[in-house]
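Subject: for your reference before the review

Hello V.,

The reviewers asked for a structural picture of the protein, and I figured it would be easier to keep everything in one thread rather than splitting it across files. Below is the amino acid sequence we used in the manuscript, unchanged from the supplementary table.
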Amino acid sequence: MEIIHAIGRRKAAVARVFVTPGNGAITINKRELSIYFPSTILQYVVKQPLNKLGVAEKYDIRVNLDGGGFKGQAEALRLAIARALVKMNAEDKPALKSEGFLTRDPREVERKKPGRPKARKRFQFSKR
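And here is what came back from the structure prediction:
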């Protein structure tokens, strides 16, 4: 029984995934997927690579999720699962790549600048 390890990141979220052959259980921080992500949309986002390849019931996935918000965490997890699936079977790479599941989204929060309330926003201009 081999364990495949992969990491996915999105914004400030980091997902460490351990995939083993099993019956489709996804455990995130020792909690079930439906409990960790109550939103069905986020559950769908997480399962996208598995559903694309039709292997949702083949593997057990154990996840350590850290940082970021729930949307960033879900997308980080999607990337990690896609990377793990490619490690298991390299022939799946074109199918996942065409859907964009293997692309790390590089967008990060821009830092706040001094003398401004936010990164780009300016204080209200007063003529007098």
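For the response letter, the relevant points are probably these. The chain is about 35% helix and 25% strand. The radius of gyration is 18 Å.

Happy to draft the paragraph if you're swamped.

O.
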